[in-house]
Amino acid sequence: MTRPLVVVGGGSWGTALAIHAARVGGPVRLWVHDPLLAGAIREGRVNLPYLPGHRLPEGVGVDTDLRRSVAGAGMLLLAVPSHHLREVVRSLTPHLDPDVDVVIGTKGIETETLLRMSEVVHEESGVPARRLAVLSGPSFAAEVAAGHPTAIVVAATDAGAGDRMQRALSHSNLRLYRNPDVIGVEIGGALKNVVAIAAGILEGLGYGANTAAALLTRGLHEMTRLAVALGGQRETLAGLAGMGDLVLTCGGQLSRNRQVGVALGRGEPLDLILAQMKMVAEGVRTSAAAVALAQRAGVEMPIAERVAAVLFRGLPPRDAIADLLARELKDETPL
Fold first, then answer.
1. pLDDT reported for residue 335
2. Is 5-180 a CATH 3.40.50.300 domain?
């Protein structure tokens, strides 16, 4: 019998991945932290708080017992919020088979350590590169669950792992491309959420297409600059995990990070915005971590710096825009 594919995380992305995995075929399990939510999904086959309108196939098992969920798994898809990833991986590692493939669908930078998600997983689990990959790219959960054609990236430093996981997860509407640049893919996936908050702020302030185009272009420049400084490849940020995800997250109506920015631009306080959100907007935490990581790498990131200042230091959004426009004039292209 085929070993099960296990999705760890019962939010919108984890639920969408479980729905997609069921289309691929073979046994699928979904681990959900909240017992009440798990019970509701088992009974109604719909994750109403996180992914309403999308039915979970009957063959997908739903469990709250982490040890039971991951036991005997052939592949693990991690889809928990970045600030919970280390704790969850630490808890599940003793129960993993040594040859399990681990795919990380979480995007972000750990605030305390400034580690990328693959570094957190490797540090806690010891899973070798030949078994580890990162999933990223333009992919709203609801559209993946609905079966809309979607193209994303699976990044692995080991070519065999990338090929194996690409073949295991590509099916029907979801097409995966391989990329050996794990650093570039992870930095793109994390920082596009920060730029999306900025894009939302601009919309909330009432600015138009000129301003949005400038932001996306310069935001991509910042993302690329940091990725290259950390050892990533410039070409990666021009692809699905960089520009593709940036366009989606900054312009798509389903973007949680963009929604946070819109509310900020309209003058709403951050604590109230977050209190009203059921799902996590990763860009909020990532903004401060990205600025700290950039400072450590000696990289200038003025957009990320202003976003973090708006979020955590009370800088008025209009003042943040004025600060950016008042910066020293310079050439466009040098990184």
1. 54
2. no
